[in-house]
Amino acid sequence: FSSQTITGNFANVIHGLNANHLTDQVIQRSKRMILDTLGVGLLGTSTEVCHKVTEYSKIYSSDISSTVWGHLDFRLPPLYAAFVNGVAVHSMDFDDTWHPATHPSGAVLPAVIALSEASPQKKKISGLDLLLAFNVGIEVQGRLLRFSSEARNIPKRY
């Protein structure tokens, strides 16, 4: 990407981030957001919509798999594990919010966890790397919403 474009500049900023950029306050807030998201997600595994997407996703398999929250009996390919776990988080509608209106952790955390579980053993990421990936995901989501002309009017539409 050329740094002369908004996209190129944004990509350069994101690419340049590392765990040293995480302040103590960001780390503590991130841990609280993650804990909250896991709790809401585990509660959401009991909802009808989560049961439906779980059953639907069982048709997919792969040599690489990730955890489906609340299920010890099977795993799914990372894409579908993230999908099911994200549905679980959103199904109760108690997950965190951000302005403009979005639920950042429910979209980001399931994907980050699924990908971290699918990493080869020799490339396992640290807890700090997971926090960095989580925060980069939250930042990307927030900035994309800020760039979106559709998102600017969400509060007025409701």
Walk me through the structure.
With 158 residues, the chain is an all-alpha fold. The chain has helices at residues 6-15, 24-44, 48-57, 78-91, 104-118, 127-147, 149-152, 154-157; strands at 66-67, 75-76. It has a single domain (23-147), classed as 2-methylcitrate dehydratase PrpD (Orthogonal Bundle). Helix content is 63%, strand content 3%. Strand 1 and strand 2 (75-76) form a beta hairpin.
CATH superfamily caption: 2-methylcitrate dehydratase PrpD
Distance between the termini: 37 Å
**How would you characterize the largest beta sheet?**
2 strands, antiparallel
Strands of the largest sheet, in order across it?
Answer: 1-2
Q: How confident is the prediction overall: mean pLDDT?
A: 87
Tally of separate domains: 1
By oligomeric state, this entry counts as single chain
Q: Rg to the nearest angstrom? A: 17 Å
The counted number of beta strands is 2
Shape: globular
CATH class: Mainly Alpha
Helix content percent band:
55-70%
Family: Belongs to the PrpD family.
Domain MmgE/PrpD N-terminal: 9-152
Protein name: IRG1 decarboxylase
GO molecular function, one term: aconitate decarboxylase activity
